[in-house]
Amino acid sequence: MAGCDTGRDTRDRGFVTAESALVLPVLVLFTTALVWGLMVVAAQIQCVDAARAGARAAARQDPPDAVVEVARAAAPPGAQVTVSRGAAQVRVVVVARPRLLRGLPFDVREEAVAAVEETVGAGP
C-alpha cells in the first residue's frame, strides 16, 4: 500500500492550516467587534433609562440633588447628568463613555424631556 495513489495532489498539503491561520484572526476580530457593539448598545439603553428616570423625578419637582441621584443610579458608571428646568418642561441629559471605550473619543448621549407637573396643595 505504500505505492497506492489516493488521488490527492501532494501540493495541497498545508492549505487547511494556512486557511485557518487567515480565518481565525478575522473571526476573533468579528467577535470582538460584536461584543464591543453590544456594550455600546447596553450603555445606550442605560442612558435612556437614566434620562427618563431623571425627567420623571424632575417633573414631580423633586429637589435637583435627588433628580441627579436618581439619574446616576440608573446610568452607567461615571456618567454625567445635567438637569435644566424651564417654565413648563424639564430636560435631563445623560452622557456616558462605555467601559470598553475609555481610550476612544466616543460618548453615548441621551436626553429626556418631561412636562412639569403641578404640585398638590401649592399656591398660585
Automatic annotation (TrEMBL):
Residues 14-56 form the TadE-like domain. InterPro entries: Rv3655c/TadE, TadE-like_dom. Keywords: Membrane, Transmembrane, Transmembrane helix. The chain crosses the membrane at residues 21-43. It comes from the Bacteria. It holds the Pfam family TadE. This is TadE-like domain-containing protein. It comes from Streptomyces composti.
